[in-house]
Give the backbone structure.
Amino acid sequence: MKLMNRFAYLLMTIALCATLYFTLALKPSSFNAFLFLAAWLNTPYVAMGVALFFVQKSELTSPYWGALAMLISVGGILFLLDVIYWHPDAQGAIAVMMTPILQGVVGAILAPVALWLTPNARR
């Protein structure tokens, strides 16, 4: 169980660094714009890291939470790669700003599945 969470932390750290690189690739107009965009795009990774830390300390610990964090991290990076590099268009800025919201929606949909798969969860 702990190995899956370590891989999840590693992947979230890589995703966080990749998101910072993507933020630089977007060429924000000022340093404040860079800070805002970097903070906004990295919010899901920080939130998942904190949530994974607290879930790991509780009775709900299972490898499914780490797998969920990895799935959301990889999905967010692939979405940003698609919007910024693979298929750039005029509406790409809107899609980039929606990425953390979409990651939150995926997490909200799949978190009950991870809870359901957790063997010792109170039901």
Remarks:
- Residues 31-57 form the longest helix (27 residues).
